[in-house]
Amino acid sequence: MTKITALLLAGSRPGSDPLAQAAGVAVKPLVPVRGEPMINYPARALLAHPSVGQLVILTQTPELYRADPATAWLDEDPRVRFEQSGSGIASTLLELLDRPDLPFPLLVTTADHVLLDGDMLDQFVAEADGADIAVAMVERATLLARYPSSRRTWLKFRDGWWSGANLFWFGSAKARAIISLWQEVEQDRKKGWKILAAFGPIALLGAVLRVSTLRGGIARVGRRFDLLARLVPMRKAEACIDADKVEDVALIEQILDGSA
């Protein structure tokens, strides 16, 4: 396989982030987890994976990471580079798709994906390879069997309740159509019906009536846009636990300490 270009989203949304405020840091990716900035965890996991050729960190404030002694190593690693991110994830990705120095396939994840590890990357890369676009999800039963008190945002389908795992695969320029759609709905990413509605009335009605599976819905979206779209149902419950709230950080620290 061609070496993967990994994109790590480390930007800031407009306004202050509650988690960053609570920790007393400038931006969320610098929030400490077990004493070090959370961005270090997914960055190390990506750089340690043999399929990753380069790591691009997308942020509005690269100077913060260069100046912090705990994250300065990112600027010193020859495989890592910082790129300026825009106001939205999708718009930033669209600007990068045609860059010859950022070859496909692209693997996108987030700085708060603290529990990302080699096993997750092994599964996702193996099952996403060959697709124009792939998305990792975790079914609710997988999470609750391991962490029954963890709370996520769920989309309900006939084949289960699903939550995102913050792993995306863009295998070719055909992904542009889906990213453009993402751009339209990214402000409503927590409102499942708006996301579904953007995929068309058949997908929306199917979800409401529970006659559509997530796997089938993603495949249907791919056919609509003349590309191969694939769901990767993650085996590890930790794949959908990101550091979004104070209680998430507490759980993540317990998992990393082996006490959860």
From TrEMBL:
<dbReference type="Pfam" id="PF12804">
    <property type="entry name" value="NTP_transf_3"/>
</dbReference>
<dbReference type="InterPro" id="IPR025877">
    <property type="entry name" value="MobA-like_NTP_Trfase"/>
</dbReference>
<protein>
    <submittedName>
        <fullName>Nucleotidyltransferase family protein</fullName>
    </submittedName>
</protein>
<keyword id="KW-0460">Magnesium</keyword>
<feature type="domain" description="MobA-like NTP transferase">
    <location>
        <begin position="27"/>
        <end position="140"/>
    </location>
</feature>
<dbReference type="InterPro" id="IPR029044">
    <property type="entry name" value="Nucleotide-diphossugar_trans"/>
</dbReference>
